[in-house]
Amino acid sequence: MGELGKGANASITGMPVTVELHWTGDPVDLSALLLHADGKVESDADMVFFNQPEAGGGAVRHRAADADAPEQITVEPAALSASVTRVVLVGSCDPGDENRTFAGVTEFSVRAVQSEAEPVVFPVPAMTEGERAAVLLEFYRRGDGWKVRAVGQGYRSGLAGVATDFGIQVADEPAPAESALVEPDPVASASATGQPPTLSPALTVPPLASPAPTVPAASNVAPSLGRLSLDKGAQAVVSLDKNDRGVEIVATLVWDGGSDDRRERGADLDFYALFVPADEALLGAQQAGTKASAGHTPKGSPYRPPSVSPNADPVADEEPGRGRWLRRKKRFVRTEEDQRHVVYYNNLGSVQAEPYILLDGDSKIPGREVIRIVRPDEQGYVLLCAYSALSNGSGSFRSFGAHVVIDDGRGSAVTVPLYEETETSYWVAIALVDFTAPEGVAVRHVETYGSEGSERRPVLQLDGAITMDAGRVEFKGL
């Protein structure tokens, strides 16, 4: 049985896929929303739950739990309208009881089953911060096919927060006069019968004690870019919600060695991600990705301004990001010994903790190396570079067939080619991924080479400028 970690995805066929909800402890309900290109439902007809068991002309169907099977929702991708780009599955606690949260739920998972395919299971990570609803899975179009992604995004605001994010109008319940008789609340009544409320554009939801979600709201993503290749010096902007913790940017360095002769002499390229976290990034006068001379001093306003007193004790500052920014704000120029700001074969990184960037592994033969970037809210700039070891012999990176593909997993795949035949450089900076772009994430073609014979690593400055031949020298295997 295949298992998906949070943020991971898998391909599915156009055949029906049935998602089963499994849990122990406090009850959890399963529902689904059919989303269109704007990331929203068009009407309450795009919702599937206990009281509305079908949508999309029967392409998405709900089945209540019984003695033989758990609660299920079946999605038939091939039968969905072309206007439907995603189907999200939502788990929720009793909306009429604000004391019910996922803290009372254990062994929480969803299982996606297709005939003639191995079932896929997503064990939902523990939610202990008052979350009362969560986006569990999403099915999304990818080219001519479909994929499923494990999301696991919780909401303290419950179904009301999920509904608002996906275009369902949620009205606050008016406070009754002290002497007035209170009509039965439809949400509470539905809860009493064990049935979820009818979500509609006029939905009334009781006031919630903690309206702010623990995890930022789900993204309302603009239409994808599809597949495109950048011209020299060009850029593409991938639209996304940087607060969406389900986002994963996958950057792949691909190379084939170029020729049999070159492969025999060695073609071990190494993929590097140099990065500036969001709490260190500066918005400078020049566009990030500009080549800068040695001794460059970054200047600009903080991308994430501090919101505490300059005299505050950073050790006592417990809010994520603030203390780190205060401790680092005077260190404008990186030194070559600063190893914390690079992910490569000797420092693979992590997607579970800072820097939220991970190199999947080191390929020593022509093929590919993959760097995964999550938590876009924690990223400032990421510079994707490649290094060619001396044993490779002469030859340009382009002659090895090297290029980078940056994929958001939601239909945008940007190829960053190399155009120059520079044969005497050990280093090339290929692409800058700029998370400070207001529209989403900007991918820029930078193609900047190190000087002849220099094995000093590039340096990514705090304002996103690139200084070649300025970083650490490190020989592989030593």
What does this molecule look like?
There is one protein chain. By secondary structure, the chain is mostly beta strands.
Characterize the overall form: elongated
Approximately how much beta-strand content do the residues carry? 35-45%
Rg on CA atoms, Å:
25 Å
Mean pLDDT: 79
**Main sheet summary:** 7 strands, mixed
Q: Counting H and I runs of at least 4 residues, what is the number of helices?
A: 4
Please render the helix and strand layout as text.
Blueprint: E1 2-3, E2 9-12, E3 17-25, E4 29-35, E5 47-48, E6 54-55, E7 60-63, E8 72-75, E9 86-92, E10 105-113, E11 120-123, E12 133-142, E13 145-155, H1 158-165, E14 170-172, H2 186-192, E15 203-205, E16 226-229, E17 235-239, E18 248-255, H3 260-265, E19 269-277, E20 282-283, E21 301-302, H4 322-328, E22 342-343, E23 349-350, E24 357-359, E25 367-374, E26 379-388, E27 403-407, E28 412-416, E29 427-434, E30 440-449, E31 459-460, E32 466-467
Q: Which descriptors apply to this entry?
A:
4 helices; mainly beta; 7-stranded mixed β-sheet
In a nutshell, what does this entry contain?
This protein has 478 residues and is mostly beta strands. The chain has 4 helices and 32 strands.
